[in-house]
Design goal:
Blueprint lengths: L6 H14 L4 H15 L4 E7 L5 E7 L10 E2 L4 H9 L3 E3 L21 E9 L2 E10 L7 H19 L18 E4 L1 E4 L2 E8 L14 H24 L8 H13 L2 H12 L4 H17 L4 H22 L14 E5 L4 H5 L6 E6 L7 H9 L2 E4 L4 H4 L5 E5 L4 E4 L3 H23 L14 E6 L6 H6 L4 E5 L1 H5 L7 H15 L4 E4 L26 H7 L1 H14 L4 E6 L5 H20 L7 E8 L8 H7 L2 E4 L1 H9 L17 H16 L4 E3 L7 H9 L4 E4 L4 H8 L4 H14 L4 H11 L6
Parallel strand pairs: 9-10, 10-11, 11-12, 15-16, 15-22, 16-17, 17-18, 18-19, 19-20, 20-21
Antiparallel strand pairs: 1-2, 1-6, 2-3, 4-5, 5-6, 7-14, 8-12, 9-13, 13-14
Helix pairs in contact: 1-2, 1-4, 5-6, 5-7, 5-9, 6-9, 7-8, 8-9, 16-18, 18-19, 23-24, 23-25
Length: 753
């Protein structure tokens, strides 16, 4: 064979020249195999391309009989070519016909050739075809020759996939021909049909060849240094200390980024004549094919991390940091991301978004809260979604079944189109109930309120017919802000919110940051268990300036209006009393500096820490109202992290323990005539909200989309009969309250679906 130091570079350059020449796709492929045979001094050079059914068809050859072209097909795993495609690895043999996988095809005339070298044509980690060379003499091809053919195969894959050779690369998006279903976790209700847009668009390497290996090595080394520095900086952030899965992913990134073998393989690829970007893509393809062959789920999972690292490195090399939000997206966008923050989702044009799918993030994550506010069907914990989709793929997001259908069949699309139409009709029914009071059949008035946290939430108040906003999460505006909002900016935000809600009541929760709610501009101490640590009222009382600034802004914004403020994560009644004292100080300053005071100021406490159960009398006497935070209360009650998919759904909110705790809180509030509301995920499910009414609760707050189904349930309910039934279950120590309540609903024609 020719001297290979310059050989691959010359071959790559010749391939590009061929692709630029006029002619049909077949003519170009014929010239390509002739060029490969000539430059590599091979008597045979052949290209096999993969069809939709996985079989391999001989598309072009130099050396074999021409009548075999398009007439020779290898089934999946058949022959040496099929074996290469199935295992995505190189085969190098001095005597091919002695190999047990050899499959003799008389139409090719290959019986006179002995030595064989075949490599997979890989793109995006998937085998698109096989490139082979053969010689009559029995010889083992050298490592340099293998490297040359592998590099040629990579360039060939990119050239063919670019569309320059029309009609000869039918499987360039092989996965698109196959449907797939990925299960996840519901984030926001709905069904969405549309097409995939990647939040971080994949980098397409177009510049493949370089005559300056030294310069490309320098570019690669510089990008690696930037990548390592970025990872070190992210790992050094205090708010990531002890942050569980996110930190583990970053540690995995750093492990790979420090691996010398990884860097050496990319440098070797550069030496064959590739650009730094093409070298990264080449090593990514080889690594993906090798790791996906392994049956060990651990290594497949690790490749997800490594694949993301390759993307980060390519973005650094190409100087790209933008997301799809900066581009015009289709009108039926299904946004797919590995992870996403609430501010990033708000960057998108809501009118064009139909669905959201993220690999990470549970139903209490902050992006889930924003998805609910925007009314987008969303699924999280969709493991493997990034490896399964290509931009433009058709997709269906079904939150009810917690499934994402990728490249669905026509029958599936038709079925979901019917489902969307049915949901639209059902929503029309709920819309007719908008102005109907939520009164049970026996005359019990239930106050239905909505949860909010952003200005984009506020139109839902009128659209849903809610009685008010039972929980406004003030921290969300802080989380989407690039800098800490000062007093004047906060005042303006709160004033706009109050004007938007009109004469309906609204409850502002004071800053609930810390734990999983990290402000990018705010330094946090390292903690082993952030959810149990320095967060919410604990943080704001330790930093009274932070708390007083927010209280001052709320008081000024609510001039001449009623103001309701709720304190999160109260654990000891003394915390509440301290906050009350700070509020009183700020009230006094209003008068001193001539600001108009609110008409009335009410201070409430969230009950979400079990310790409060033994201070209910004191809390209810001190507070103007209380609100049950069912998300955290359930988390702390069962010692089950609600952000951990392995534990989040392990314990039922309708279990005996949770029902008894709720009964105790509702009873304690009633004893002191303290208004009580529940404002958590539990309230949004008709069956669970039915259980709350059965416990004596008469005020609940939920996501706006859930209000219609819950109201429909209330209108078919006899509250007195239900309350007697629920009390009986609790007193009897019933172990399966959920199924008993479902039976009760069916027997009494209560609408819970």
């Amino acid at each position: 064979m020719a001297h290979l130091d310059a050989g691959p570079r010359i071959l790559i350059r010749r391939l590009r020249q061929i692709m630029a020449e006029p002619g049909t796709g077949q003519e170009r492929l014929d010239r390509i195999v002739r060029q490969i045979a000539s430059l590599m001094v091979a008597e045979v050079s052949s290209v096999y391309l993969r069809g939709q059914d996985g079989s391999l068809e001989l598309y072009a050859t130099e050396g074999l009989k021409q009548e075999a072209v398009h007439n020779t097909h290898m089934k999946r795993g058949e022959g040496l070519v099929g074996l290469i495609a199935e295992q995505a690895k190189t085969i190098n043999l001095s005597e091919a016909q002695s190999h047990p996988a050899f499959s003799y095809r008389p139409e090719t005339g290959e019986e006179i050739y002995h030595s064989f070298l075949g490599v997979p044509v890989l793109r995006s980690g998937r085998v698109r075809g096989v490139l082979t060379v053969q010689n009559r003499t029995q010889r083992h091809y050298t490592a340099e020759e293998e490297e040359a053919l592998q590099t040629t195969a990579m360039v060939l894959a990119e050239l063919l996939a670019s569309g320059d050779v029309e009609g000869v690369f039918p499987a360039s998006n092989g996965a698109r021909g196959r449907s797939h279903v990925i299960r996840g976790q519901a984030l926001s209700d709905g069904v969405a049909l549309g097409h995939v847009v990647l939040h971080e668009p994949r980098i397409v390497v177009t510049q493949l060849v370089s005559d300056n290996p030294q310069g490309e090595r320098a570019r690669l080394d510089s990008a690696i240094a930037v990548l390592r520095e970025t990872l070190d900086r992210m790992l050094a952030r205090r708010d990531l200390a002890g942050a569980g899965e996110h930190r583990e992913v970053l540690e995995t990134y750093r492990m790979f980024a420090e691996d010398r073998g990884w860097l050496a393989r990319m440098r070797d690829a550069i030496d064959t004549g590739l650009t730094a970007e093409a070298a990264v893509e080449r090593v990514r393809n080889d690594t993906r094919a090798r790791m996906l062959r392994r049956s060990d789920a651990y290594w497949r999972e690790r490749f997800r991390d490594l694949d993301d690292l390759f993307d980060r490195l390519l973005r650094t090399l190409m100087g790209r940091t933008s997301t799809a939000a900066e581009e015009e997206i289709p009108n039926d966008t299904i946004l797919v991301a590995r992870t996403m923050g609430p501010a990033e989702l708000l960057d998108y044009d809501r009118a064009r978004l139909r669905g959201l799918v993220v690999e990470e993030g549970g139903n209490t994550s902050h992006v889930a809260i924003v998805a609910k506010a925007l009314g987008i069907a969303a699924i999280g914990q969709a493991r493997g979604i990034m490896q399964r989709v290509e931009p433009g793929d058709a997709a269906v997001v079904d939150v009810e079944t917690e499934e994402v259908h990728i490249r669905p069949s026509a029958d599936v699309v038709e079925a979901y189109s019917d489902k969307v139409r049915f949901r639209a009709r059902r929503q029309q029914k709920y819309n007719k109930l908008r102005d109907v009071p939520a009164v049970t059949e026996d005359g019990q008035r239930i106050s239905l309120q909505v949860n909010a946290g952003l200005l984009v939430d506020l139109p839902h108040l009128q659209e849903s017919g809610a009685d008010g906003i039972g929980l406004f999460r003030t921290e969300l505006e802080f989380m989407i802000s690039a800098t800490f909002p000062g007093r004047d900016r906060q005042t303006e935000i709160y004033r706009r919110i109050l004007e938007a809600v009109g004469d309906k009541p609204i409850v502002f929760r004071s800053l609930d940051i810390g734990g999983d709610k990290v402000l990018p501009y705010f330094r946090h101490a390292q903690e082993e268990n952030p959810a149990l640590g320095w967060r919410a009222i604990r943080m704001t009382l330790d930093r009274p300036g932070l708390f007083r600034t927010q209280i001052r802004a709320l008081l000024r914004a609510a001039a001449a209006r009623e103001l309701n403020i709720m304190l999160p994560m109260v654990t000891d009644v003394r915390e509440f009393r301290t906050a009350r004292e700070l509020l009183d100080v700020e009230m006094g300053l209003l008068d001193r500096f001539g600001y108009e005071a609110p008409k009335d100021v009410r201070l409430g406490a969230m009950i979400e820490v079990p310790a409060v159960l033994w201070q209910l009398d004191e809390i209810c006497q001190a507070a103007d109202f209380v609100s049950i935070g069912s998300n955290d209360l359930q988390q702390f009650l069962f010692a089950a992290d609600r952000a951990n998919p392995r534990t989040a759904a392990r314990f039922d909110p309708l279990s005996l323990a949770m029902m008894r705790v709720l009964h105790q809180i509702i009873g304690g509030a009633a004893k002191h005539k303290t208004p009580v509301t529940l404002c958590g995920e539990m309230a949004g499910d008709p069956l669970q909200s039915m259980a709350l009414i059965g416990l004596g609760l008469r005020s609940i707050s939920m996501a706006p989309a859930n209000l219609g189904p819950v109201k429909a349930m209330i209108l078919t309910l006899d509250a007195a009969a239900l309350e007697a039934y629920v009390m009986g279950l609790i007193e009897a120590g019933e172990g399966d309250i959920r199924s008993r309540l479902m039976r009760f609903a069916e027997q009494n024609s209560i609408e819970i679906h």
